[in-house]
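User: Please fill in residues for this 167-position structure.
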């Protein structure tokens, strides 16, 4: 764990101890989610979603989560506030293919909050079973100096509150 980090996985998400696909019932009830439908342009000729598209879905979900759940404009953070939210680590584990026309419910869990970075796990559920899982470590940076900075207080408080209650 990052020095000074607050572990919020008690277990906010049991992903670390559950390497296989999870059921929706395995996740805390308070987790925020959004539903996405995979479109033709996101798929290969066989109708299977291209791997990079999942990272687009994850990033769009994180943006929506900031705005809709945390109540903090993702675009204001990057724009007016000039604070970067860059991934220092991003990965995915795939359990089942996703196809054109299918819906995926993507749930967001906060796994840790440090001084300059935080961790998120995203669970992509298809018909109540985990089809994929994304793990992200985000570092906050100054977009003027491109150096890491402390997580802004409002973001830090929102992350911790969400981890505890789902807001």
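Assistant: Residues filled in for all 167 positions:
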């Amino acid at each position: 764990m990052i020095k000074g980090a607050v572990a919020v996985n008690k277990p906010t998400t049991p992903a670390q101890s559950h390497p296989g696909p999870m059921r929706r019932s395995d996740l805390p009830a308070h987790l925020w989610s959004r539903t996405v439908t995979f479109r033709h342009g996101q798929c290969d000729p066989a109708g299977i979603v291209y791997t990079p598209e999942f990272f687009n879905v994850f990033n769009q979900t994180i943006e929506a989560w900031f705005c809709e759940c945390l109540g903090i404009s993702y675009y204001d953070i990057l724009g007016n506030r000039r604070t970067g939210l860059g991934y220092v680590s991003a990965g995915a584990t795939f359990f089942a293919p996703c196809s054109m026309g299918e819906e995926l419910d993507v749930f967001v869990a906060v796994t840790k909050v440090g001084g300059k970075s935080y961790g998120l796990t995203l669970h992509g559920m298809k018909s109540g079973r985990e089809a994929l899982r994304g793990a992200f470590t985000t570092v906050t940076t100054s977009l003027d100096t491109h150096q890491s900075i402390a997580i802004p207080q409002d973001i830090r408080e929102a992350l911790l509150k969400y981890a505890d209650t789902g807001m």
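For context: Residues 51-70 form the longest helix (20 residues).
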